[in-house]
From TrEMBL, chain A:
Family the UniProt entry places it in: Belongs to the peptidase S26 family. IMP1 subfamily.
Protein name: Peptidase S26 domain-containing protein
A Pfam family that the UniProt record links to this protein: Peptidase_S26
UniProt record, GO biological process: protein processing involved in protein targeting to mitochondrion; signal peptide processing
Functional summary from the UniProt entry: Catalyzes the removal of transit peptides required for the targeting of proteins from the mitochondrial matrix, across the inner membrane, into the inter-membrane space.
Major subcellular location class: mitochondrion
Record keyword DNA damage present: no
Keyword NADP belongs to the record: no
Assembly mode: Heterodimer of 2 subunits, IMP1A/B and IMP12.
Species of provenance: Erythranthe guttata
From TrEMBL, chain B:
Domain of life: Eukaryota
Gene Ontology terms: cellular component: mitochondrial inner membrane peptidase complex
Family to which the UniProt record says this protein belongs: Belongs to the peptidase S26 family. IMP2 subfamily.
Active site as annotated: 38, 91
Domain Peptidase S26, chain residue ranges per copy: 8-103, 109-149
Species of origin: Erythranthe guttata
CDD domains the record matches: S26_SPase_I (cd06530)
Classification via Pfam families: Peptidase_S26
Entry membrane topology: Single-pass membrane protein
Cellular location(s): Mitochondrion inner membrane
Name under which the protein is recorded: Mitochondrial inner membrane protease subunit 2
Length: 171, 175
């Protein structure tokens, strides 16, 4: 057989394998993009830990379900527990409660462990005021100021771990 | 019956393609149009001229930088505006965390941790960090690397910072 004929035969043998590989790649791409869509636009589970949201959340760690549609649509209200990208370190996510939206007047204790002094301010446009439930051990808007709305990642609506605390998050 | 099947198959294909396109544009790279003249002459060099009929520039934004949030001075970035999360702005980073910025002859500001100082190349027509302060890096959505339209200006975006008389940057020794 001539070289071209041999090459054509070779190509024909691998054509079906190539088609199968393409099919598998497309299925993988579909799965991955569906996962990406769900995780970033609908709902995703997150592990959170730390003392700043006691007694609502445990110190040692909770797995929470975070839904993303509320923050994307702007439907965040005071009292919601939200996941936020930290303004001091963009690779860290923190969990706090929204206390005030733009235009709200927020009154807070400047240093609850040491004095009774309180301070009031109006939340500027495009920002929100977040505070941890544990005011003594929380680094939040009382220290870094109001945070831009664009840093909000999602709203917590359910807790799935530990099992004894399974259920929706209360006010 | 076969027409319904046919339409359903086409719809499935478009939905899959759209989904994969969305994932790629969120995670890797996307194209977008730039409006306004705050980044002239780097982007939209003719937008300020009312006498010339000009189209917007289209640019390539890469999202891989969002894995580590490691930016350098001179990067042109897209970020959500701190006063309106629905708007996205394009400006150049001139100050990283720890840098000292001279606002005027008497005022000096230090860029806090996790924030950056952004300035438009066309400083006179740009609302940037000089109006709303340093922006948290968490608001950054991507880095502009190339201009892809119009064809005569296809190319990489220059990564050098032009020295502006209004903004003096003292680089901190830690970086």
């Amino acid at each position: 057989m001539t070289t071209t004929a041999k090459l054509l035969q070779f190509a024909r043998q691998w054509k079906s394998t190539a088609k199968e590989m393409l099919g598998h790649t497309i299925v993988l791409a579909q799965f991955f993009s569906l996962l990406h869509l769900t995780e970033n636009y609908i709902c995703s589970p997150t592990l959170v830990y730390g003392p700043s949201m006691l007694p609502t959340l445990n110190f040692t760690g909770d797995v929470l379900l975070v839904e993303k549609m509320s923050t994307l649509l702007g439907k965040v209200a005071p009292g919601d527990v939200v996941l936020v990208r930290s303004p001091e370190n963009p690779r860290k996510t923190i969990t706090k409660r929204v206390i005030g939206l733009e235009g709200d007047t927020v009154t807070f204790l400047v240093d609850p462990a040491r004095s009774d002094r309180s301070h009031s301010l109006v939340v500027p446009k495009g920002h929100v005021w977040i505070q941890g439930d544990n005011l003594y051990a929380s680094h939040d808007s009382r220290h870094v100021g109001p945070i831009p709305y664009g840093l909000l990642l999602g709203k917590v609506f359910y807790r799935v771990w530990p099992p004894r605390d399974f259920g929706p998050l209360g006010q | 019956m076969t027409t319904k099947n046919f339409v359903w198959n086409i719809a499935k294909k478009y939905f899959t393609a759209g989904l994969i396109g969305l994932t790629i544009s969120d995670r890797y790279a996307s194209l977008t149009a730039v409006r306004g003249s705050s980044m002239s002459p780097t982007l939209n060099p003719h937008a300020g001229n009312s006498s010339r009929f000009a189209f917007d520039d289209y640019v390539l934004i890469e999202k891989l930088c969002l894995q580590k949030y490691k930016f350098s001075r001179g990067d042109v970035v897209v970020f959500r505006s701190p006063s309106n999360y629905k708007e996205k702005h394009v400006k150049r980073i001139v100050g990283l965390p720890g840098d000292w910025i001279d606002l005027s002859s008497i005022d000096t500001l230090r860029v806090p941790e996790g924030h950056c100082w952004v300035v438009g190349d066309n400083a006179a027509f740009s609302t940037d960090s000089r109006s709303h302060g340093p922006i948290p890096m968490g608001l950054i959505c991507g880095r502009v690397t190339h201009v892809v339209w119009p064809p005569q200006r296809i190319g990489r975006i220059d990564g050098t910072v032009s020295i502006l008389p209004e903004v003096q940057v003292h680089v901190s020794e830690e970086h």
